[in-house]
Amino acid sequence: MSASENKLITVEEQFKLMADAAPILMWLAGTDKLCYFFNKGWLTFTGRTMEEEYGNGWTAGIHPNDLPQWLESYTVSFDTRKEFKIKYRLRRHDGQYRWMLDKGSPRYTADGTFAGYIGSCTDIEEVAGLRSSTDNITPAGSSSFVATLGDKLAISNEELAASNEELASMNEELNAANEQLQLSREELRVINASLEGKVVARTAELIAAQLEALNQRDRLKRFFLQAPAGICIMTGPDLVFELVNTFYHQLFPGRELLGKPVLEAVPEIKDQPIWDILQGVYHTGTTFEGNELLIPMARTDDGPVEERYFNFIYQPQRDLRDNVNGILVFVIEVTDTVLTKRAIQRSAEQFQMQLDVMPQIAWTNKPDGEVDFYNQQWYNYTGLDFEQTKAWGWREVIHPDDLQYNLDMYGKILSGNTGGEFEIREKRVDGVYRWHLVRMLPLKNEHGELIKWMGTATDIQDLKMLQAQKDDFISIASHELKTPVTSLRASLQLLNRMKDNPVPNIFPKLIDQANRSVEKIVELIDDLLDAGRLNESQLTINKKRFRIAELMENCCMYIRNGGKYELIFQGDKDLEVYGDEHRIDQVLSNFINNAVKYAPESKEIYLIAERHGDHIKIAVKDNGPGIAPDKIPHLFSKYYRAEYTGSQFSGLGLGLYISSEITKRHGGKIGVDSQLGHGSTFWILLPAA
Asked: Where do the coiled-coil regions begin and end (predicted)?
């Protein structure tokens, strides 16, 4: 091979060098549909060798669900010699499948013969709703071969001239040798003929090399024009568009670019940073890489300036003296990608804001269950920060007795991929454990693939306590009703036996006992009915003016007549209120009955009526043992029954709750003043008449 041929690098070798430096995935396929080249970016992404990817080997990295669709689209496009765009998932070196956009274009030789396909792949993972990481696509540089073709031809001509001089010298030497050795004329003719043949062959070789160089220049130009990304070459200080491929021209539809300085073709960039960047690359010879760079630019000559985003590389081009004489541009517009990514980011931020204003604790998990976000309610409730509870740190908040159950349910939900719920106790910032209902639901993308878990924890401590109170109430109500019913039945059975032969001393007692049992049953039923009416807001209030003192004098006559307790009135006998006398009597009776029940040693019970501004205070005071401070907040709750010194008392735990609701419906207030060892005073405040 000649010296000129050694200096010529094939077009495909030049393209492969350029492709290996590009930060996108590029490939070449022959006419048999088999791929025979993958650039460095491709091999780095897949973590495989050229031998492993050769032919159809690279298809092992396509997601199994995407391979049939890819194969059909690829085959149809290849057979029809059309450009194609195919989306599929390609396995990265770490085993993760990422969505790719594969663009391919047919290649042709100088005589129009189909030579195969050239293509590139762009990572569009986040734009597809999963993850977004847009790679820069960079050319390795461009060959200076075209620019120096004239120099190479001149060198070849010089070599030819040198060869001719050498041949002439050899002829002289041969003539001298012929005289000295007296060689025959025929021998000299043969030698001359041989030398002439060498000259002709050498000349033919040089001409063939020149033609091959021109052919390679055309092929390299076609490679540029068919590349699946925007490529252009700008030359001279004014950066005149010398070469513009189809994809680059599509960025500026309707504009004339070739042969124009960049400021004439795209004047709107003059006062923008991008013009300074171009000048810097040309004058300093330093390559510049831009990633998602904003360049306000119109698409057409008369179109509006738009905010457009690009990934690009500006690489200086040099002549034989290593001076910068132009810039090679490799560019892809990523406006849609950037806008989509920002929309996704805004959506994620709005989602987190919505979680932060939720009254429940909320969080998200990765598909493997690791927590990657908590809302503000979590931090407020636990008093911990993200570093303390990220990943699996949340386990420190779970009650020790519930932890294993929590982990079992957690694992079951994650493996089931459908969601679920369970109840556990979680520690509050003050160290108190409260019951929570935990719910977890899977969040899936449009392909049905799990991308996250969404979890909430609702505080159900009060609901748990209410449920327990209801359970207790059912048990208590059954017991409380059973006692007077049993007593009534016993009295009736004895009366039935004695009906034909009544015993004078026993008969009245049995009737009295039966009446007391009936009154107790009626009292319990009335409490249940009142509680039901309150729940349904059907408790009626019939208001009228009446005197408090008169109400107190007629209240609880059975206690007065019993002679065991003395009901003492204190206060203003002329005070009047506007309310339901029957319901106020019900409240007052409940206060007096509680005094008798819970302070049996207090033989004197005081009934108090006082004016407090625009209100009348009605109170019942005893001198009993008093009430513990921790029990007072619960006294007016439904189903609550107080215990004193370990004693249990009968009742449904509805009396004070009903009294509280009656008072509220009068626009009044209810309360208690109590001190252990000094008795209790239950009171209500009602608007004065």
From this structure: 153-198
